[in-house]
Amino acid sequence: MAGAFWCVVEDDRKGRPKKVMSEVLGEATRLGGPAEALWLTDKATDEGLKQLGEWGATKIWLLEHAALAPYRGEVWVGAVAELAAEESPRAIFGPVTSRLRELLARLAARLGVGLAADAVAFAKDGDRLVATRPVYAGKLLSKLTWARSPWIATLRPNVFRPAEAQAGRTAPVERPGVKMPEAQMRFVERREEVSTGLPELTEAEIVLSGGRGMKGPENYVILEEMGAVIGAAVGASRAAVDAGWRPHRFQIGQTGRTISPKLYMGFGVSGAIQHLAGMRTSKVIVAVNKDSEAPIFKIADYGIVADLFEVVPELTKEFKRLLEK
Amino acid sequence: MKILVAVKQVPDTATQVKIGADPRAIDTAGITWIVSPYDEFAVEEALRIKEKRGQAEVVAVSLGPERAKEALRACLAMGCDRAIHVNDPALAEADTLATARALAAVAKQEAPQLVLCGRQAIDDDMGAVPAQLADLLGWPCASWIMEETIDVDGKSIRVARQVEGGLEVFDLPLPAVLTAQKGLNEPRYPTLKGIMGAKKKEIKDLKAADLGVAAEPPQLSVVALEALPPRPPGRIIQGDVPTAVKELVRALREEAKAI
Ligand SMILES: Cc1cc2nc3c(=O)[nH]c(=O)nc-3n(C[C@H](O)[C@H](O)[C@H](O)COP(=O)(O)OP(=O)(O)OC[C@H]3O[C@@H](n4cnc5c(N)ncnc54)[C@H](O)[C@@H]3O)c2cc1C
Ligand SMILES: Nc1ncnc2c1ncn2[C@@H]1O[C@H](COP(=O)(O)O)[C@@H](O)[C@H]1O
Fold first, then answer.
1. Would you say B77 and B195 are in contact if contact means Cβ atoms under 8 Å apart?
2. How far is B196 from chain A (nearest CA, A)?
């Protein structure tokens, strides 16, 4: 079957693709490719274009236009749909991010095809593609297939093996002329979050999560200190969020963020089913809880039954020692 | 003004779900059903808009089997004025696109100024129906909203949507589709009076034919549901805190290669 795998680029809004694109391009290449990047931006950088080539994009479709920032689904979808109608890609992938999850849903409706959101695996089955995605809060996996192409899917970050970057590999850049639809919604402002200086929760390779066992908002500083040492994001359980200790954007779980880091460490988190829903695809799970019966120990790879207020400072010290070596 | 709220009935978050005799669906025996939590935020927000404006009609709509009436009844008990139940076995295998098409047909019949949805339904966790609905209607859509203010004329709405690193604020002309994120509000509990009153409110049944939508084969279909692969058994690290912590760091470094 002909047609490319398009990988819609998520960037840092400053002209550089995010690292998660190496995962999307990597998977598209493994599925047989060709993996082509489709980048919608108001301003691309040479460095960004180079990066996409090094991650294995065989071609870059660059739609560069002032109307594309900030993201508005109604503008983006028209531009991508027009190009897709001309080029007939076999698949259209993107990472799960606030804009691409909406864009690709909208695009699937525009093109009248299926969408598999938040996929964690793909397999080829003859001429078909089968996607695997968690359902029922990650209690089961669902395997899905499309009636026809383009197969549209969003990919959960940190799950797919990133492409090996090859220095010096470049991709031809094509700048197709497409019509930018008129926007109905009008941008007013962007309100930045107070930066914690730590990585974004859904992108972080390591996540520290503090639950009700943290006892109060003032104690999160000990997790932030550890986070600063190992480059981890700090999240929370719903009990901690509902108590007003952390803003909701830090909540992990069924009614919060879904994360899939290389390493998740829960401190004073019991491991309620709704919390597990948001982190059970983490590669390595560590639990620190003083109750040896806490359900989180059932899915933890490593557990310490102890008071977190004794463990955390010790652990920070030990990580510091390790990383200084 | 008229507000349409799309709600889905889903298994309670604490329910164990098991694969059914047909491996493409869950075994529904013994499941407690609830209104998807994000849809409750949407219902609550619609009711608040109505209360603030002094008048508005809030209509809850759900596509689902007969039992979905309980979810609609719960929305009526919260304060919705009436409900529409798209209740047709021909739509039993509806994927998000087919669902969006049916809801778009309802929206065309009802002509609301606003459609409120949840950020995602917590059974399929797709988060796709609202954007698809907006696209089919040609309306603007703002996903994951944390705040909203509708202008006095009911002509446009200002929303703050959650994105990576902050909030983005937009003005949307109405009609528009919005999806509720947690944090938008705290849904109310139905009062006894609300529950009693809900029994008298109308739930209209609609079939696919009433909406002019054809039951079509889904664009995305389930091949099978599978249990999660078991995680390798874990290990509780023994010893006093300093010893256990040293061993943990060693294991994370050398065995798990996670640090
Ligand atoms: C519809 C719905 C949606 C939900 N969505 C979410 C969600 O998205 N995310 C989420 O997290 N929850 C969610 N929940 C809530 C969930 O059911 C739990 O109530 C919540 O996860 C509990 O948080 P916790 O583990 O911090 O608190 P608890 O369950 O109270 O656990 C605290 C733990 O800390 C331990 N502890 C206390 N002190 C110490 C100490 N000094 N040292 C070490 N350990 C200590 C205790 O032993 C205990 O295990 C949801 C619930 C519902 C009904
Ligand atoms: N069957 C349905 N009936 C009514 N509304 C629905 C239905 N399915 C999805 N929705 C709406 O669309 C939102 C997102 O659903 P989903 O795309 O399935 O995650 C839900 O929170 C509802 O507001």
1. yes
2. 30
Q: What are residue A34's phi and psi, to 5 degrees?
A: -65, 140
Same domain, B104 and B71: yes
Residues 53-92 of B with CB under 8 A from A: none
Which pLDDT value is given to residue B215? 81
Tokens (6 digits) for A31? 């599925």
The reply to whether B223 falls in a domain is no
Residue B19 with chain A: CB contacts under 8 Å: 140
A235 lines ligand 1 (CB under 6 A): no
Are residue B243 and residue B139 in the same domain, yes or no?
no
The residue ranges of DSSP E strands in B64-174, in sequence order, are: 82-86, 114-118, 141-150, 156-163, 166-173
Q: What is the pLDDT of residue B16?
A: 87
Residue numbers of chain B with a pLDDT score lower than 50: none
Q: Which of residues 192-231 of B touch A (CB under 8 A)?
A: 217-228, 231
Which residue range forms the structural domain that includes residue A62? 5-174
| Residues B105-147 pLDDT 10s | 999 999 999 999 999 999 999 999 999 999 999 999 999 999 9
Please give the angle made by the CA atoms of A43, A46 and A47, to the nearest 5 degrees: 110
Q: Is A11 in the same domain as A148?
A: yes
Mutate which of B36, B155, B168 to test chain A, going by most A C-beta atoms within 10 A? B168
Calculate how close chain B gets to A240, using CA atoms only, in Å: 14
- Surface of B (129-168) touching A: CB under 8 A: 129, 131-136, 139-144, 158, 160-168
For chain A, list residues with pLDDT below 50: none
ipTM given for this complex: 0.94
Predicted structure pTM score: 0.94
Alpha-carbon span A63 to A181, nearest angstrom? 13
What is the domain extent for residue B154? 2-211
Q: Which amino acid is at B98?
A: A
Q: Return the pLDDT at A236.
A: 98
Residue A167 lies in a domain: yes
